[in-house]
Prior knowledge:
By secondary structure, this protein is α/β, with parallel strands linked by helices. It contains 19 helices and 22 strands. Helix 1 (about 25-40) runs parallel beside helix 2 (about 65-85), helix 15 (about 540-555) packs across helix 16 (about 560-570) and helix 15 packs across helix 17.
Amino acid sequence: MAVMMKREDGFVRVAAAVAPVRPGDPERNAASMLALMKEADEQGADLITFPALALTGATCGDLFRQQTLLRAAEKALERLIAGSAGLQVTAVAGLPLELRGAVYSAAAVIRNGKLLGFSADPAPKQESLTAYPAGDADTVPFGGEEVLLGDILYADADDARIMFAVTVGEEACGFRLQAEAAAAAGAVIVANCGAAPETVGVRARREEAAAALSRRLLIGYVSAMPGAGESVQDNIYGGHRLIAEAGKVPEAAEIGEACGLTLADIDADRLLALRRKTGMIPDDADAFMVPDALVRPTERELLRDVTRLPFLCENEEEMAARAEEILAMQAQGLASRMAHIGAKAAVLGLSGGLDSTLAVLVCARAVKHLGLPSDAVRCVTMPCFGTSDRTYQNACGLAKALGADLREIPIRDAVMQHFSDIGHDPSVHNAAFENAQARERTQILMDYANDCGGIVVGTGDLSELALGWATYNGDHMAMYGVNGSLTKTLIRAVVGHVADTAEDPALAALLRDILDTPVSPELLPAEDGRQQSTEGTLGPYELHDFFLYAFLHDGFGPAKTFRLACRAFEGTYEPAFIRTVMTTFFRRFFAQQFKRSCMPDGVGVGSVSLSPRGAWSMPSDAFAAAWMREIETL
Length: 634
């Protein structure tokens, strides 16, 4: 079943379009452009951008000074405007525009039978065209009305959130000043009518420049270059169609495709959220503004793919490099803290689970960096009621493979004594039963670290912090945390990388078995041979990490996140199950903030963190009511 995205999700469908042209034949060119406008409208496009001078052809040279061509271009534009009646797509069409004896390379903005205004090129390369003064705003008579003309034309969507800007520039990567001004004014999407020919390697350079510009300015960008039919007297025009969003190029035409459409869905809502995080404040652009209902109200299926694992790189080589970078940052952070306080050892509880496995790998690197022996990593395994033989054996094997010191301290008797002291019936497996074990383990680690001159290394991860899946003043506490800004899915990827690159086959085999072990706190005795399951209680971590990224990084609400999750996990989880897990995520995220308000120091390695020291500020008494009500409407 197709997942339909709603208007309020903030996706804008843009099209870069190149129609076949006949230089000097505006009437024929207008017919070709109108055909693409109708096709884009049928495809649900909100915005379609043609090349500069598309109505006449970009290679007319001194013919742009001829009154006959200029009048023919005006008539062709009138035909295009009339033909757009009834269409929901906003079109940006290039043409030569005469004003008081000067001829500009302009872009007409058209919607539903109406001309909204013109943008004009401030730096054309053809001598027959005049540069329009940057920053100026003027009016020009057309069709019996006065319409706005500027080097940048802004149009504000009717919901007043998504503003787009229209520019005309010879080259896709040569209009930085216009794009910077547009972004500063609050434009989320910049449409550029380009006019540059093909040269060897220029496509890659355009894409790199557009990606870099869109990343720096946090904009969506759509551009089209002239294509088939343009004169080949001195140059080749390849019809390059380019779309970029915040550093990525989601769609690009093949080199051989000199005509046609390239469509992509730009997430304007995400761009706005990223701007809120960076504090971008728009300037006043009212003098250049025209109204336009940019985003169509109908639901539609999303064109773009949605990754299941947003914290991971999609490319394997990039992920391997990222994993090495993460390990180096974790080890550097721990080594620096140890050196600063004069710690002689890194002490941690080694459970044989995923988080403590990555932590001990980091500790091994940190002590090596400090010139300490491998046994300066002091591992403690503390079996109790729910400890399985598999995790116990893996913990022992891992310490041995790394040359770490390993001490076994069973805690069953100590916990039973504690139950007796507080009058707890050990047959009652409630929160006290589970948390007493976690707190006993933390007490042992803290005291042992004091005794050997070490530092207790925390193993808890970002996913657990978000869900509050930690015992307050138990595994919640440490002297320095190394996993606190890594999600469970990212930790799995990093440990997997170490397994794939390990020179010791025994270590690699241990790591792979740990990766295959279901995630469990092992605080409850096994029932019928089945161990306590974290994901069985909370739901899959891949879902929680998906929600975490959408909520913290992109600033999305539950409704949009739900629809994106349904798209990403289609065929794996039913929508009802996704909604249930999402309810758990938001309920726990708000209720457990008090644990994050006093979390220990730890290295931050990614763009998402819940550290109360500058990364995430939230009152412990905040209510989740608004988010829960939104979930109830799904």
